[in-house]
Amino acid sequence: MPKSLGRSLPEPLRKLLDGSDLAGRVGLTWLLVTVAEDGWPHVAMLSVGEVLAAGPESLRLALWPGSRTTANLERTGFGLLMAVVGSTTYHVRLQSRRGADLSVRRRPRAYFAASVVEVLEDVVGYATVTNGIGFRLNQPEEVLADWEAAVAGLRRAAVDPDG
User: Which is the most buried residue in 30, 56, 136, 152, by most CB within 10 A?
Assistant: First the structure.
């Protein structure tokens, strides 16, 4: 049964989402679950170039403007970020607001400022999580440049999501 850790991101997760060492973190994947208009859950896979821990209780997201995830977050404001860090699974309940789009290498990204509502830690005694979802980049130089630009934009984004 998941245990509530309150509103603060645990240090191991916050460190992975701090926007540093993007090249060394290629392959790390977080799942962002939103709810579609028809009521079904919708899952998006996010990379280190799309999520930034802006503080212990806040995240910034850079998403594709025309995506279902963007539409769902804009409509409801709610999301659940799932992450595997070591042998621990975290479920981070988020409430978000859309701000002005970011320009990432001349391509827009939908910007969201998200507040952590609650972090749940999921560890069981009868099994150990050995890994989460991972990936390999087909065009690492181009993608890493996009990620660096996106994270730089998220760092510059004002606390006011409309700024």
Answer: 30
Terminal C-alpha separation, the chain: 40
Task: Give the span between the Cα atoms of 33 and 73, in whole angstroms.
Answer: 10
Residue at token pair 């799932």: 82
Residue type, 77: G
Residue 86's domain spans which residues?
3-156
- Which pTM value belongs to this model? 0.89
Examine residue 163 and state whether it is found in any structural domain, yes or no.
no
Q: How many domains does the chain have?
A: 1
Higher pLDDT, 162 or 5: 5
